[in-house]
Amino acid sequence: MEAMEDESLDVRDDHNHNRCPGKARPYPSGEPGTGRGRLRSGGSKLVDSDSGSENSELGEPDSAAPPAAADGKFTLDSTSKFLLNAMAVEDYRKNHWPNLEKAIDRLLVQNPTDHISVSYAQIYSYIYKCVCQQHSELLYNDLTAKVTEHLQQVSSQLQTSPPENFIENFNVALTQYMASLQCIVPVFMYLNKFYIESKLNRDLREDLMMLFADHVAEKHVNTLMPLLIEAHSMPFQVQPSTMASVVKGLYSLRPEWAQLAPALFSGFIPQINPPAVESLLPDYAAHDQKLQMELSMNGFPRGDQSRKRASDDF
């Protein structure tokens, strides 16, 4: 009994004062009581948790890395990702967007009859890379900002347009913008498919048309509508093709604008007016006779009169 107490005392002395020559390994600094060296339940044998089969009798393996170390690794990874993302954004700003911006500028200012030399394959390649590098939102914002800037300049130019040329100038701006969209929307197809449609649930063409409505048409509709009504009441004051282009363009931008001048819009767009009723047939006939009279007064022949019946006089 005394021998066992002496042996136990020696072990405790080694535990506290590191005097044991070889029976047990001292605890590492800062890890007391972590199970690195334990006394078996019998109290007679010191078991090292690193030693093979003896470790299975202790009950608990070594714990994982301290949370502080894991936190430090997470912080390092987050910093690395942030720096990589910042480098990617810088590459987008320096290399991709400047080339796209130049191409968009050229497409926005082109005339419908002009031929502009633009490498659509190269533009598409830039857009593809931007989307793959997760710059879709950045690219979309830059595109809409660039188009908005252009439309604000168009609106300022229309502001100084004289009334007699306003309808024609508005038609030029609308026609030119529509022609630009015919080029811009296809090359941004990848952005439209994988960001605008899938994440925003919208369409690029509709968004760009809305920009024209907000920044150009809506600002000048109160000036444009009275001029259109006046021109419609005086045939051929404005070219019919120009009138049709402007009225149909306004209707495509905001269908509710047709309610501002139903008679004007019904002359170019079907089903604007309510369905015909029998009681208004005399009014319809009078309107047709007036139109025929105006056409004949402006030099439009009525065709071959030799086969005309006597009852065809208006």
UniProtKB/TrEMBL annotation:
Q: Where is this region: Disordered?
A: 1-71
- This chain belongs to the protein called Cullin N-terminal domain-containing protein
GO BP terms? G1/S transition of mitotic cell cycle; ubiquitin-dependent protein catabolic process
Species per Swiss-Prot/TrEMBL record: Echeneis naucrates (Live sharksucker)
Q: Which residues form the signal peptide?
A: none
Q: List the gene name.
A: cacul1
Q: Which family does it belong to?
A: Belongs to the cullin family.
Q: Which GO terms describe its molecular function?
A: protein kinase binding; ubiquitin protein ligase binding
Q: Name one Pfam family in it.
A: Cullin
Domain Cullin N-terminal, by residue range, is 97-253
